[in-house]
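Hey, can you fold this one?
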Amino acid sequence: MKFNLNAVRGAGDVVALTIAADDAVQARRVAAEQGWSVVSVRASNPFTAWLARSRTDFGVELFIQELVSLLDAGLSLVEAVDLLAEKEQGRAAGTVLHELRADLQRGQSFSAALERQSALFPPLLIATVRAAERTGDLQEAATRFLEYQQQLDRVRRKVISASIYPMLLLGVGVLVTGFMLLYVVPRFSRIYEEIGGQLPFLTRVLIGWGRLLEEHALFALVGAALASAAAWFVLTRPAVRRWIAAQLWKMPAVGERLRVYELSRFYRTLGMLLKSGVALPAALDMAGGLLPPLLRHALQRAAREVREGQPVSRAFARQGLTTQVSLRLLGVGEQTGRMPQMVERSARFYEDETARWIDWFTRLFEPALMVLVGALVGLIVVLLYLPIFELAENMK
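Sure. Predicted structure:
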């Protein structure tokens, strides 16, 4: 398999590399052995990415949860990792854990062992563990990261669950419409051919489409499948997704909701890092990776102002990274010295606001979508029966 890497050596510029490896972890390791500092790794095609993920199937959240339970039971870090490695013997996760155990037994720190497999472990976890190693509260830091991950997963699941029913409803509407055009409309057209007479214009258009689809059903189905595959391929391209996101951000109502959602993730991450003991400038740099390009550039400017001595609340407000509520909470955190708590409280406020908007949107969008699908199917039925209604009227 081939992997595309962005890497840097020394103080040079970032260069693109192509490395053949079994998975992303091995590709990153090969580049590191050649003296490169890897910035990002991605498979050269979607199928390779899926295959690479299947070979390195490792659940970070489950690993942290089990590790916290073993540390809470009184086991040392090496003993806990060793026990987990034995439990996963013969699986893909077992290889990862065996490498972690070997690094710990060689005397490396836990953060260094995690960083050697940075393709699997997120940078936030590595930074949290590194900060906890200085204070000696590894168990508390791991618990904090687990709570952070679970909170993000709750928000993500809410967004996904809110989109499932509309997608199912839209899919059913497409199937019903396709069935009527491919099966029902052609049969009505043959009935009208036997009866004769002039049909309404819209009915003739509908019957013409039905005949066309019936005569070229195979080509129509193949064309629909190819169009769907092409649309999926185009929508998965990073440049296309960035363009779509930029257009959504320009829409006043939608853009503001997306901004609040992104800020909730940013504030949640920043609060977790600050509570773990990471310095504010470093925490801003790491948490900024979660933001879209527009807000990321704003955060970079805000971080520059913070390093120059400006208050966090003022720097964030100047760059559009706050709302009225979060601005007040950040000001309170600066005055009381409880910045991590105030940042997390801002994240909780944003998450609650996002959840309320999702509930409101689904309550409005689902009935509107049902009306749209029903109106489309009803229009087809009315156009099919319109000649019969006219015939009955003429008989009277």
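The first helix runs from residue 24 to 33. Let me know if you want another pass with a different chain boundary.
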